[in-house]
Each structure stands twice: as structure tokens, then as C-alpha cells.
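hiii, so i know i said id send this last week but things got crazy w the move. better late than never?? heres the sequnce for the chain we talked about at the cafe, plus the structure i predicted for it. fair warning i was half asleep when i ran it
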Amino acid sequence: MVGLAGTVLLAACSRHGDDDLVAIPVLVLAPAPDSVVVTTISATEFDLTWFVSDPSNVLFYRVYGSDFFGNLFFADSTAQNSATAVGVLVPIFGVSSVSTDYVESSVTLGVATIP
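okay and structure toks below
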């Protein structure tokens, strides 16, 4: 019965079949960081640096930390392509880029080796 009502509704619609095209907005995407380099300063302090192939569409970067189970959590955002993490117990980090249309890229991971 529902299918029949839907068919009648489409047949009764006067604009059905017209050539009115709706423009779908195209979102600007930013490339994900190519690599994340983590430099150990001390046992709980790390410098992070990352590279992006084309930073022209990047509005800012999101930096993620990791807990003991490997779950990422949002730690900070920055307009630079570097950050310093202080008071960190697990040296696993993730970085993503956010485009000018606020679309977040995939997260690129970086792991520090503790000397």
C-alpha cells in the first residue's frame, strides 16, 4: 500500500521529470600529512614535525595523543606544521589536516623511540 501511495505521489507531482538541476557544493579537501617525525626531548617531552604535500588548502592541523590502549584523543590544534607535547606518557601521536572548508583528512601516526 505504501509503494502504491508513493507511485501516485510521483505521478501527481507536476515538477517530476523537469530539468531543474541542483548544484551540489564541492568541498575543498586538504591532503593528509605525509609523515610525522617525533623527536624525543626527554622521557615525557616530544617535538612533532610533519609535512604536507600541498599546504595551500590547509586551515589548521589537529594533533592527537594516545592512551595506553592505543586510542587516539584530541590534544591540540595549530596553524604551524610542528608542535611540542609535554607530560606525555605514551609516545604515539597522530596528526591530521583540516581544509578551508573544515573537512578533516585522515590521521597520520608517528611514534617516538625513547632513548
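btw The two ends are 71 Å apart (CA to CA). thought thatd interest u
miss u guys!!
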